[in-house]
Amino acid sequence: MNTPLIRLSGVGRKKGAFTLHADAEFGSGVHLLTGRVGSGKTTLGEILAGIVEPDFGTIQCTGERRVMLLQDTSYHISTMTVEEEAGSWHGDAGNIIRIAGLCGKEHADLFTLSRGEVRRLELAAILSGSYDLIVLDEPWAGLDEEARRWVRKLIDTHAHAIIVIISHDITSLPRIDQLWEMDDGVLRQLGPVPACLESWTRAPPLIRYLIGRGEVPSGLSREELEEAVCRIHG
Amino acid sequence: MQDPRIRLVATILLSAAAWISLPGAVLAVLWWLVCGKARTSIQTIRSLILILMVPGVMGLAAVWSGEDGFSYVIRISAVLIIASWMYAERYPGELLDVGVWFLGTKTGFDLGLIGELSMSSLDTLARETDRISIALRQKETLLSPRMIPAVFSGILIRQLNLAQERAILLTLRGYTRGGMHCPFFFSPRTDWINGAFSCTIFLYSLIAGDFFNIAGSTFIV
Asked: What is the pLDDT of residues A81-98, one digit of tens each?
């Protein structure tokens, strides 16, 4: 049982006819938040990160909270070169550049880098920092398979924090501890992975296929899914 | 106010009234409080201070040079309040509605489309500024002049990308000039009454501001 660090009690936010409701406890570990487009995942991520204030309800956090939210746009960029940007995160700039795989591009203009390279730099800075809560909204956007594998490894070594991954793409996930689903604005905790997978009524086709063939994956990471697929094919 | 045509006319009249005379400015603010239900797009005290900074400095300069800086600040503030009310009341597509209603499906459509795209870009800019400020705070980085080139380059590149996407979309939809659009307006009686009040304030401001008094001869008897 994880130690709860963030507790949402009756948290809600209204936007026109849409209302978001969330009662939840997020402990350390990796949480996957899924749900249909427009179900309120991003809004919940913003509430968790403290960017958006809920209209009602309370958010309780244990201890001091250092929060980071990564969205699809690189709003964090505040300098012109890779070296300056890595240094602006108050960490070991050389280490961030090395983790991001940008050695040799230290003096490159950030705006000449590909979207994937900028994303890698941001993720390296975030995941090498000492944040208590990291919300990653569609972190695989703009990344190729090699970079996705790199992000998975990076997240797997960072499980002491609360990491909330908001994603539709279940084929690139790291090891997931808890599964959550937004259902038309209501947050539902499906439970720990893999125990909850069989009762996941809105599971993506790949998971439904595996369960239908009697091969419940041992987790949601890429490797665990591959292993389950391999078991089917002997 | 739900009818954008009346809102546009009221905005022009009230802004002119506020600019022409001090009593007009005071009445425009009163109109905003009563008829405009004090709605404003200015959400924070910080935004208010930033917006009033330039007229404040100009007013002080006017006072320093012996002019009536106080009147200037009040009048400009009233104009800004009315502008913020109009911005807060607008709904997506209203400029296209008004443009087509006023100038037809060619020039009116084009002007309305330009207006809609511009307003949407303003919204994007406001959201981007907000998000960048939050991102830098999370990064525990203080905003400094050295960041301006990087931050503004990012905003500019994203705006150019957005403009390109929209241009491609319009081209794919076959846009060359003008377009079909059937505007629909909902005009409750209160809109007409509030609009009439704005006309009255404008006329009163003309009189109070000696607008018709040219070379000592008053044109209104």
From this structure: 999 999 998 888 999 999
The residues of chain A scoring below 70 in pLDDT are 1-4, 63-64, 159, 234
Same domain, A107 and A62: no
* Average pLDDT score over chain B: 88
Between chain A and chain B, how many beta carbons pairs sit less than 8 Å apart?
48
How many domains is chain B partitioned into structurally? 1
Which residues does chain B have within 8 Å of residue A71's beta carbon, measured at their own beta carbons? 131
Check if A121 contacts B (Cβ < 8 Å): no
Q: What is the pLDDT of residue A91?
A: 85
Total structural domains within chain A? 2
Q: What is the pLDDT of residue A64?
A: 63
| Segments forming the whole domain that contains residue A114 | 76-129
pLDDT above 70 covers a percentage of chain B that reads: 95
Nearest by CB to B135, from A76, A79, A110: name it: A76
Are residue A10 and residue A58 in the same domain, yes or no? Answer: yes
* Structural domain containing residue B86: 4-218
Interface of B with A in 109-138 (CB under 8 A): 128, 131-132, 134-136, 138
What CATH number is given to the structural domain containing A139? 3.40.50.300
**Could you please report the per-residue DSSP string of chain B?**
---HHHHHHHHHHHHHHHHH-HHHHHHHHHHHHHTSTT--S--SHHHHHHHHHHHHHHHHHHHHTTS-HHHHHHHHHHHHHHHHHHHHH--TTHHHHHHHHHHIIIIIHHHHHHHHHHHHHHHHHHHHHHHHHHHHHHTT----GGGHHHHHHHHHHHHHHHHHHHHHHHHHTT-SS-----------HHHHHHHHHHHHHHHHHHHHTTTTEETTEES--
ipTM: 0.80
Are A43 and A59 part of one and the same domain? yes
pTM strictly above 0.80? no
